[in-house]
Specification:
Structural class of chain A: alpha/beta
Largest interface: A-B, 94 and 92 residues
Radius of gyration of chain A: 25 Å
Oligomer: homodimer
CATH architecture of the largest domain in chain A: 3-Layer(aba) Sandwich
Number of strands of chain A: 17
């Protein structure tokens, strides 16, 4: 088995115009790293067949896995499939099941189907089809020039990421032999460099499994990846590392192999048979939106109030006007009154409240931009946790960090012995 | 004036491992677009001199502006300057003012200076220096092979962006004459292929300005770009196209050269001196979160209620229990009662309500997953708009589409004559 070398070619004029960042290349590169496949070049080209061919010519000379993203959509400038197949001498045919799926999709939406949509069901003869359960354009893979593998994935990041994980990675893994298991240790409340400092000794000595730190918006995680003959063996190899990392980073690890902090919060609420409601000011509905993004949230999440205007803090959350006058809207007292108010108004077992200054401008007092107060109320015990912090000076980050911290407060409370 | 063609080469193994996204290429591409400089390729290579040389060989054959990012730091793997200069046959010399600046910087930090830091003060003979006011590594530019311009910028996104804007853009602008203007026509409520079908004739005949369609999550837009001797002339060239596209796509165009639908809604509320509140069920806080993401939202957006649980529809929005019993939570009647309730409870001028089945599972009735009811209440007139639709079968998309449609209903009402 010789080591394979991959090259990613992103197709899309919007990338060259700077409308979007090439996150597909990042997502795919992470997956290739996990698979132990080297990637030496990323290339981006526009929706232009000649320049795509030029990129393919270059890639063909130095890689044996070529992965394209983008240009599989239904519009006239989506030319990746036609161009790549013509470059490698592959014919396209109408793949009936895909065409039926696309027609059904449009019928269900009661949306008119255009001739362009039929293009999306044209696929290379002899290739493998990656069904798209996240959008309309299927992806595909074929073998060319003897042993070059060519994979085509859709451009929209969500579709690309899902199809890469669910279809392309198994396809690539099969080329390699053996089994690979990848685990994720998720961390909230530590910056990436702080996390790395705490586990550096462990990361550096790691060979199999390997341990790699990643930063995400507002949180970070460690990926633990092991290779072995079987999946069971590979999993067993990851276990001691996962346990040690969890211990070293306690209490910041909110879960292993879980998708998100909100997922963990909903699971804990379900397990403890508790209902949650939220009272939001500066996060303006983000906490509720994060929780309700998950199916089944309604079983344990009741909803809440976005009391952006002080009037709503009074009318819908019963925050006493005195408290607002004396301490201001951004204060521990207001946060606590909001948390109590949302519990009382909704009958929830737990109420979490956030009030703060997201910026960019202050409120005319000394309170620095980025200041956030959070309070957690347990209907049986009253206020059980109250925190405050300055979470940076950029509106988007402050809101994201504040919503994460609110969720983490609920998580820690439910998780505490 | 021959049009110049740029190519961006990002240098950094962290990009190939997927640790970070290549946002430098995006930032630079946006600036190049503004300058009217075409960019046909982005390439990413690791911290490897041979592969960087290979990328330079390819770029030299097809571009006359080559911009590298990354690899200017003080560590042993920061080899961009040495590699690029050796490739183009340029000598490096110690640039005394830069060396003094770096020494002063380290003295101030009371941080030890290493021999590697001296590398950062080595600059190409005859080149132009881009001082770094945002970090330590200066950037630079030189002319090679007669008329190829080679620019080197630091990798950290903040430094790269600032140096590109403040140093590289003026350098590049001086090379070019003429002006470019790029406009954006934003569309809600049409799919990309439907939009394209409506304007295809117009797109295909477009030369200057060019017209390009783009899909974004939940909406789409057209970019209209013109070149001319002056900015005024270029702008004038875009005007008829923008007007015609707006007419062809009416009433789906929600704005020209505006950042987002929520921005337009807040602007209209401000212009009409109206306050808005929201009552959300299936969107679970997303409408509020989208509006409050923008600074200054508090002037016209009061907040709202996320009534995920029916109990909250009753307790916080005064939806009559009879209506819930008779018509169900997902019904026009409930949506209308929620819209009236949020107006009454908050004193807002406008109340928008959304209730629906985001899925993935149904509610045990015949109502298909994806069904959404929306109602808009004007406190002076009562319910002024009520809509329903089936918005697909994927939870995330249903919620995104429903929140967009709610915002668009407010937009259309405020925009109507």
């Amino acid at each position: 088995m010789t080591a394979r070398v991959a090259e990613i070619i992103a197709v899309g004029t919007e990338l060259l115009l700077g409308n979007v960042a090439n996150t597909d290349a990042q997502d795919i590169s992470q997956g290739l790293s996990e698979l132990g496949i080297n990637c030496f070049y990323h290339t981006t080209v526009g929706d232009n067949p000649e320049r795509l061919k030029e990129a393919l010519r270059v890639a063909r000379s130095r890689a044996d896995i070529i992965i394209t993203t983008g240009g599989l959509g239904p519009t006239y400038d989506d030319l990746t499939k036609q161009t790549v197949c013509s470059f490698f001498g592959k014919e396209l045919y109408l793949h009936e099941p895909t065409w039926a799926r696309i027609r059904a999709y449009f019928e269900k939406l009661a949306s008119p189907l255009t001739e362009n949509n039929r293009q999306q069901a044209m696929l290379p003869v002899g290739g493998e089809i990656f069904e798209n359960n996240w959008g309309t354009a299927p992806g595909c893979a074929f073998t060319a020039d003897g042993d070059i593998r060519v994979l085509m994935l859709p451009g929209p990041p969500r579709e690309c990421r899902a199809m890469f994980r669910h279809c392309a990675m198994p396809y690539l893994r099969a080329l390699r032999g053996g089994a690979l298991v990848s685990r994720i240790v998720r961390v909230f409340g530590l910056g990436e460099s702080r996390m790395e400092t705490l586990v550096r000794g462990r990361i550096e000595k790691a060979q199999n499994p390997t341990i790699a730190p990643y930063a995400q918006e507002g949180e970070c995680f460690l990926r633990v990846t092991a290779y072995a003959e079987s999946e069971e063996e590979a999993f067993a190899l990851t276990e001691p590392a996962v346990a040690e990392l969890t211990r070293l980073l306690h209490p910041h690890v909110y879960g292993v192999d879980v998708p998100s902090l909100e997922f963990v919060v909903l699971s804990l609420l379900t397990r403890h048979k508790k209902k949650l409601a939220v009272a939001e000011s500066c996060t303006g509905g983000m906490i509720a939106a994060r929780l309700t993004a998950l199916p089944g949230a309604s079983a344990v999440f009741m909803g809440g109030v976005t009391a952006y205007d002080s009037l709503l803090k009074i009318n819908l959350l019963d925050v006493p006007r005195d408290i607002l006058d004396e301490y201001g809207a951004v204060s521990a007292q207001t946060a606590e009154a909001m948390a109590r108010g949302i519990c009382a108004r909704t009958g929830a077992d737990l109420g979490i409240a956030v009030t703060g200054l997201a910026g960019p401008t202050g409120d005319g007092t000394d309170t620095p931009v980025g200041t956030v107060y959070l309070a957690l109320c347990d209907s049986a015990r009253g206020i059980v946790d109250c925190q405050n912090a300055v979470l940076g000076d950029e509106r988007r980050r402050v809101r994201l960090a504040a919503s994460g911290r609110a969720l983490d407060m609920v998580r820690r409370w439910l998780d505490s012995p």
